Amino acid sequence: MIVESLLRSASDNLIETYLRLGHAIPESRSWEEPAYVACGGTFEHPICNFAARLRLDPWSARRLSDLASGRPAFNVYLLPGDEPSHATELLERAGFHPSYRLVQMVAERPEPGPSIELSRADTFEDRFKVASFMGHQFFTRQTEAFRRKIAIATARAEGLELYGLDERAQKTAALMLCHASGVLGVYNLCVASARRGRGIGSGVLNWALALARETERAVTLQCDSRLEGWYRYWGFVATGKVDVYSLAKRNQDDIIL
């Protein structure tokens, strides 16, 4: 059974990851209020415009709505452990609508299988290459200028480790790790479209699981419901939902994994 403290750690790891990404966007800032922690910036994307760690009442939900209404893009993340139990109702009364849902998953005692060795990107140049590869996998419908801005922010983000796999001098797979709140967060795991279905994704995931086992950490991630079964196969357990709200319908390019 996953203990309550681990559920909170998983949510806190996600929040810390999003804050580190948000802080890497120029002219963005974060602040904390009794009812939520928020990030705001001039870049019109939820990477630096969001609120999380909710402890809502009707008045704070309305303040969130006022904050979001002044921005072209703003996400509110309702995570396991947030309060109150009827936070969904408070957000909807304040004008928010559900945009999408991710499954929060945890592997408390990772048992890694066969893995693929990844290379850590340490210099800005190497981090930018990994981040650019990620951007091309996740933001397929966006412009190159948009993807470049996301890649620069990801490369600049402090405390987020980037790893890649190269084959014949071409980037084949990548992932981002966040060591925070006593757990290892896995984000942006991706494989080049031409190389999918060959076990590379499993090898990358198991490499991260082996790293977590060495450091005696549980592993947390968020995924689309269509991938839940695949992660269950590798020992993950669904621990809750990450419900994302906005004032207007957003497209899939607003999703941060």
From TrEMBL:
Gene Ontology molecular function: any one: acyltransferase activity, transferring groups other than amino-acyl groups
Cross-referenced PROSITE patterns: GNAT
Annotated N-acetyltransferase domain residues: 116-257
InterPro entries to which the protein is assigned, alphabetical: Acyl_CoA_acyltransferase, GNAT_dom
Domain of life of the native organism: Bacteria
Annotated protein name in UniProt: N-acetyltransferase domain-containing protein
Organism, as annotated: Fimbriimonas ginsengisoli Gsoil 348
